[in-house]
């Protein structure tokens, strides 16, 4: 499937968000191209791999992000954690958790926000992925992590971007986002899959 380009849209909010989108656009496109998430979700083995890969991604980053962002009430970080949801999804698909020792560690609030940008943005793509899976005859068993907020998705995304937009120093956020996209690719790559 040809990449869907979220970054073609106008940013509409802050310069910080625009920088994050522009700095990671090629990584997002490469991730879509190289990981074939939608195609793999259509077979039981591929689905186990993909859910395990997303579990590794979230389990690897969330605790490090929490060190810097757990106390930020505007973010409500604990409600954004998805590792527990992914553990339940792993149980549904019969997959098992992988080691997370190679995750990038956020060295400050800016890097943590950049990493969280990647995790939160994946929920936007998650809606699109679920729809594509249904259109191609698949079901949604074990894919609740792709729709963590239901109807509140847009509200949660805007609240996150508002926090990003108030951040004075953009460079650390960009560094965190780029590191998190690289880690996402290593978690979701087919050759990294353990089932
Ligand atoms: C086949 C897989 C994927 C597809 C089809 C996809 C598609 C999309 C789409 C359509 C959007 C824009 C949604 C909107 O503006 O309402 C989006 C946004 C985003 N996605 Fe993906 N995505 C995929 C995988 C991922 C993954 C695995 C990650 C990260 C782990 C990710 C990170 C992001 C981010 C950070 C954004 C926000 C971009 C912005 O700032 O506007 N995506 N994705």
Characterize the structure shown.
This protein is an all-alpha fold and 195 residues long. The protein has a single domain, classed as Up-down Bundle (Heme Oxygenase, Chain A), CATH 1.20.910. Helix 3 packs antiparallel against helix 5, helix 5 packs antiparallel against helix 6 and helix 5 packs across helix 7. The N terminus is likely disordered.
Which SSEs are present, and which pair or pack?
Blueprint lengths: L14 H21 L1 H4 L3 H26 L13 H11 L15 H27 L17 H13 L4 H19 L7
Bound molecules: protoporphyrin IX containing FE.
The site of protoporphyrin IX containing FE has 21 residues, from helix 1, helix 2, helix 5 and helix 7.
Organism: Phenylobacterium kunshanense
Protein name: Biliverdin-producing heme oxygenase
Keyphrases for this structure?
Heme Oxygenase, Chain A, 195 residues, mainly alpha, binds protoporphyrin IX containing FE, disordered N terminus, globular
Short characterization:
By secondary structure, the protein is an all-alpha fold. The protein is built from 7 helices and no strands.
Bound molecules: protoporphyrin IX containing FE
Unreliable sequence segments:
1-12
The portion of residues forming beta strands comes to under 5%
C-alpha-based Rg, rounded: 16 Å
What is the count of β-strands?
Answer: 0
- Overall CATH architecture: Up-down Bundle
**CATH class group:** Mainly Alpha
Proportion of residues in helical segments:
55-70%
Give the mean pLDDT. Answer: 92
